[in-house]
Write a structure and sequence with these properties.
mainly beta, six-stranded antiparallel sheet, 21 strands, flat, Cpn20
């Protein structure tokens, strides 16, 4: 059985393994296969095996109702940033070391907002992305329980100032976007050129100043705002 290797415009590489069939039907299905922004995989293919450091994630369903039960129009629905890992590649080589993918099938993950290539496979929406696009592990729906991966850091954002120095109340649109927060959790760090993990210099509880538009923001169910960003987006530790 031969595998068809496909590379999308975004650079994602993956393999499709067709089900057993006659040579004519197999050839026909391959000839009509096209790559689009959201790729639909024909039922001919029964397995999708990511290559290298890529991961296949089944996307969680879009929330169609607000917390108050109001039906949301499609334009107001929140784009999912989480799902379940269903397949992983064989990993990558750094230096002379082979590094396996750090997450396993069945893990519940959160990923960067605009990462990966969308694929409709077996009638369900999936995302093919690189391991580095994963933000963290999250088994429930409480974002403060997120376990960051690699060099990612979870920060509880400080509330924006509601008044000017002169005591004037600020409207929501006039408030400055916060760039200060408290570190809630950190990832284990990234790998150096020697293939060894390099721990981060930032710890839980640190008050930090970070880049204004960095990372991915999440509002928890209690209304508290969090941001997950890379360690390189931290500008300073405050004390």
């Amino acid at each position: 059985m031969n595998s068809s290797f496909v590379q999308s415009a975004g650079g994602s590489m993956y393999a499709f393994i067709p089900a057993a069939s006659s040579s004519s039907s197999s050839s026909s299905s391959r000839s009509c296969f096209t790559i689009r922004a959201a790729t639909t995989v024909a039922p001919t293919y029964t397995t999708l095996k990511p290559l290298g450091d890529r991961i296949l994630v089944k996307i969680q369903s879009v929330e169609e109702k607000s917390a108050g039960g109001i039906l949301l129009p499609s334009t107001a629905q929140t784009k999912p940033q989480g799902g379940e890992v269903v397949a992983v590649g064989d990993g990558r080589t750094v230096g002379d070391k082979k590094l396996e993918i750090s997450v396993k099938s069945g893990a519940k993950v959160v990923y960067s907002k605009f990462a990966g290539t969308e694929v409709e496979f077996n009638g369900e929406n999936h995302l093919l992305l690189k391991e580095d696009d994963l933000v963290g592990l999250l088994s429930g729906d409480d974002i403060k329980e997120l376990q960051p991966l690699n060099d990612r850091i979870l920060i509880q954002v400080s509330e924006a100032e509601t008044k000017t120095a002169g005591g004037i109340l600020l409207t929501e649109s006039a408030k400055e976007k916060p760039v200060i927060g408290t570190v809630i959790a950190t990832g284990p760090g990234t790998y150096g050129e020697d293939g060894e993990r390099k721990p981060l210099d930032i710890s839980s509880g640190n008050q930090v100043l970070y880049s204004k538009y960095a990372g991915n923001e999440f509002k928890n169910k209690d209304g508290v705002l969090y941001v997950v960003l890379r360690a390189s987006d931290i500008l300073a530790i405050l004390a």
